[in-house]
Amino acid sequence: HTMCMGQAASMGSLLLAGGAPGHRYALPNAKIMLHQPSGGAQGMASDIAIQAEEILKTRSKLNDLYVGHTGQPLEDIERTMDRDTWFDVTQAMEFGVIDHVLQKRDLDEGAEE
Q: Which three-class secondary structure state does DSSP give residue 50?
C-alpha cells in the first residue's frame, strides 16, 4: 500500500504513482505535484552541456515511468510535466496517480477477535 498523507511532490509523486496498482491511496486533503526535473548547472560551457543532456535523459525516463504508472499518453504526461502541476485527490485519481481516496479508517481492521 502506498499513501499520500499531506503532499507528494516531485519524486514523491512518482513514488506514489509507482505503488501497486489498486493500492495507491491519498487522504481527502492531500495535494500531489508533478513536474519535470530541474538543475542548477554552472561552470564551463562543456560541463553545462553535459548536465543539460543528463537532465533531458532523466526527463524522458521520468515521462516513460509516469506513462507506465498512470496509463496516460506520453503527450499528456509531457504537457503535465512541463511546469509544476498540482492535483487535488480527485484530479490525481482521474490522472491515474492514485486509485482511492481514504475518507475514514476502518477501526475494526486488524482487531483481534
A: helix
Asked if residues 87 and 32 have their Cβ atoms less than 8 Å apart, the reply is yes
Catalytic residues: 10, 35
Predicted pLDDT at 111: 54
The radius of gyration computed from the CA coordinates of the chain, to the nearest angstrom, equals 17
Helix or strand holding residue 49 (H, E): helix 45-70
Side chain identity at 77, as an amino acid letter? I
C-beta atoms surrounding 93 within 10 Å: 17
DSSP letters spanning 55-106: HHHHHHHHHHHHHHHH---HHHHHHHHTS-EEE-HHHHHHHTS-SEE--S--
To the nearest whole percent, how much of the chain has pLDDT over 70? 94
Query: Is 1 within 8 Å of 19 (Cβ atoms)?
Result: yes
Query: Which residues touch 87 (CB under 8 Å, ≥6 apart)?
Result: 31, 32, 33, 34, 95, 97
